[in-house]
From TrEMBL, chain A:
Pfam families: BioY. Its main location: membrane. It is found in: Cell membrane. Gene3D superfamilies: 1.10.1760.20. It is a multi-pass membrane protein. One of its GO terms (cellular component) is plasma membrane. Keywords: Cell membrane, Membrane, Transmembrane, Transmembrane helix, Transport. This is Biotin transporter. One of its GO terms (molecular function) is biotin transmembrane transporter activity. The chain crosses the membrane at residues 51-69, 76-101, 107-136.
Automatic annotation (TrEMBL), chain B:
This is Energy-coupling factor transporter transmembrane protein EcfT. Pfam families: CbiQ. Keywords: Membrane, Transmembrane, Transmembrane helix. It is found in: Membrane. CDD domains: EcfT.
Length: 180, 198
């Protein structure tokens, strides 16, 4: 009970910290924020249910008015802006990533990277693109064109999510709750 | 930790948080049903007026919070100029800016403690599944551990630079995630030792 609670809270904090890290240069000349990496890790490390709850807790703090989204954004405004769909998709993305991690017997890297791609990119983009289509009053394909800008960064993040999950599986096999 | 509540005191700060959130919900819902440019510009003027009434510093802070919208404003504006349909482009931009500015206004004029008060009332029906004390504890844990974890991340980055001279890039993420997992275990033990999470 306490273990679930503290893991959910600590990973909500981790999402915030990864958003505060000001633009980590992942590869030379590709500056991206690591916040969506945090979303992927919630699923691949904590598993579907706890991962989704950690993301929900994080979003709750954002809605209460803490500037925890990357770039110091936060408050209620972000939930009606053009990126709102991505925020609503975050918990679902973590859930799907965790589900893939739990239900497959692939090695940690492949399971986590696949989960991050399916959840953190596939599912998340459906929500995000729908949100942009509604707020900007565009068709789905026009909105998808705008969303493509984020794709290269997110593919890199999915690979990193796989590497980080693999590192945790090696260093603390018992702490990888998605596989516990 | 800093919140987005404005330190500039305005009459809006003294309104009940629940009332502000209710009014915001109705206003936002209405905004997405209206497409008459005249009505939208009145709504935008009303919101802008509320900001301006609170003074220059408050208004500038409000403008600063709208900054992430500019890329979208530019894209929509160019798109509709290219389609030779500036009127509907203006409608979309006005609606988006008004909705976000109104929501930010509520955030900027409501203290965190009042927001948590509203949350406690809203979460009351969930009590059998999610005891209010547990939710409050989870929120407190996140707020407490954000500075702890970011301090840890900074130390790990320094240690890395001391050894290699290069920036750690993505290699920092695994140790930071491990630190979060270890802190979670320790905090769970500490909670159990103090009578559990309730």
């Amino acid at each position: 009970m306490e273990r679930s609670l503290t893991h959910i809270a600590l990973f909500a904090a981790l999402i915030a910290v990864l958003g505060l890290v000001p633009r980590v240069d992942l590869a030379a000349g590709v500056p991206i924020t690591a916040q969506s990496l945090g979303i992927m890790l919630c699923g691949t490390v904590l598993g579907a249910k706890r991962g989704a709850l950690a993301v929900l807790l994080f979003l709750l703090l954002v809605a209460l008015g803490l500037p925890l989204l990357s770039g110091g954004r936060g408050g209620l405004g972000v939930f009606v802006g053009p990126s709102a769909g991505f925020l609503i998709g975050f918990p679902v993305a973590a859930f799907v990533a965790g589900w893939v991690m739990e239900r497959t017997t692939l090695p940690a890297f492949w399971a986590a990277a696949a989960g991050a791609v399916i959840g953190g990119i596939g599912v998340l983009y459906v929500f995000g693109i729908t949100g942009m289509a509604i707020v900007l009053d565009k068709t789905m394909s026009e909105a998808a064109l705008l969303g493509l800008a984020f794709l290269p960064g997110d593919v890199i993040k999915a690979v990193v999510a796989g590497l980080v999950t693999q590192a945790i599986a090696r260093a603390r096999p018992a702490a990888l709750l998605a596989r516990a | 930790m800093l919140t987005l509540t404005s330190p500039v005191d305005t009459p809006l700060h003294r309104l009940r948080a629940g009332h502000k959130l209710g009014a915001l919900a109705v206003f936002t819902f209405g905004l997405f049903w209206v497409s008459a440019p005249l009505v939208l510009s009145v709504a935008l003027l009303v919101v802008a007026g509320l900001y301006l009434a609170a003074g220059r510093r408050f208004s500038l802070h409000g403008l600063h919070m709208l900054r992430p919208l500019w890329p979208f404003v530019v894209v929509v504006a160019l798109w509709h100029l290219w389609l030779k349909d500036p009127a509907s482009g203006a409608t979309i931009i006005m609606r988006m800016v008004t909705a976000v500015a109104a929501a930010n206004l509520v955030t900027m004029t409501t203290r965190l403690s009042d927001m948590i008060g509203v949350l406690e009332r809203l979460a009351r029906p969930l009590a059998p599944v999610l005891p209010p004390r547990r939710l409050a504890l989870a929120i407190a844990l996140v707020i407490r551990f954000i500075p702890v974890l970011s301090e840890r991340a900074a130390q790990l980055a320094q240690a890395w630079r001391a050894r290699s001279g290069k920036a750690p890039r993505w290699r920092l993420f695994a140790p930071v995630a491990l630190a979060a997992l270890d802190d979670a275990e320790t905090a769970a033990e500490a909670l159990r030792a103090r009578g559990g999470a309730g």
